[in-house]
Amino acid sequence: MHCSVDGGVATITLDSPANRNALSQQLVADLSSALDRAEQPDVRAVVLTHVPPVFCAGADLKERAAANDAPPSTSAGNPMASVMERLGTMRAVTIAAVDGPVRAGGIGIMAACDLAVVNSAVTFALTEVRIGVAPAIISVPILARCNWSSLASAWLTGEPFDAQAARSMGLVTHVADDVMATVARLVQGVLAGAPNAVAEAKRVLRSGQPDMAAMVELSDRLFRSDEAAEGMRAFAEKRPPRWSPEAER
After folding, report:
1. Which is higher by pLDDT, 21 or 69?
2. What distance in Å separates the CA atoms of residue 163 and residue 119, rounded to the nearest whole number?
3. Which of 80, 170, 195, 207 is within CB 3.0–4.6 Å of 146 for a Cys-Cys bond?
């Protein structure tokens, strides 16, 4: 696992090609540590990428089979659940950059990100039922993105599907021949926005059906903020806004 930060962007790279970036205990622990760095105030966007050829093959089945005598985990103590929750709730915008096949739990990690950019040649499969389990933990981020009926065939059969099908389901946001060029454009867009405004926009986006009273209060608070004052001043002066390096908290 590698994590580097440059210009407000944290790039986290899954780097366990020997097991096809499978979600071993070590990889998940390393990803959690990388998110510790990505959650610092100087980071505004997180790019989750991978060494080729596979984004993530899902659970490390050899390790998992050997661990079946361990006590059952709970949501509070499950590292995989924690990683997916953090990708969705951290202030920074999280972007999955996917240039290789994705299977099972890897789809959950990808779906937990705010944006998912995948190569047009990438294939996916929810293979859990074929090894005697169900896509349980990963159902939380996946079903937050997708209508259940659009997933039913892949979910219940384990059959593979392609990038265009994944976009039709709502599972991914962008299909591209040049993944990193598309990611770079999205990152540029995130950085062009005001730090606190982008964080609040992410929170609203993921909140489900917003409450009107709460949204009126939020709108009023944001319009009265220093960020809005600078944004409107920059608009009137026909110049790019100069956002404070420290996001409002």
Report:
1. 21
2. 7
3. 170
Q: Is the peptide bond before 53 cis (omega within 30 degrees of 0)?
A: yes
Query: What average pLDDT does range 139-160 have in this prediction?
Result: 97
**What is the helix, strand, coil percentage profile of the chain, to 5?**
50, 15, 35
In sequence order, the 6+-apart residues with CB closer than 8 A to the CB of 227 are 194, 195, 196, 197, 243, 244, 248
Helix axes 25-38, 79-89, angle to 10 degrees: 30
**Looking at this protein, which amino acid is placed at residue 210?**
P
What is the Cα gyration radius of the chain?
19
Please state the rounded mean pLDDT for residues 50-70.
88
CA geometry: angle at 60 spanning 16 and 119, to 5°?
55
Residue 188 pLDDT exceeds 50: yes
Tokens of 227: 């960020």
Average pLDDT over residues 202-226: 96
Amino acid at 8: G
Mean per-residue pLDDT of the chain = 94
Contact 44, 191 (CB under 8 A): yes
d(CA 184, CA 116): 13
Written as one letter, the residue type at 28 is V
8 A C-beta contact, residue 106 and residue 56: yes
State what percent of residues in the chain have pLDDT above 70. 94
| Alpha carbon distance 185, 176 (integer Å) | 12
Per the CB < 8 A criterion, the answer to whether 125 and 160 are in contact is: yes
Average pLDDT over residues 128-152: 97
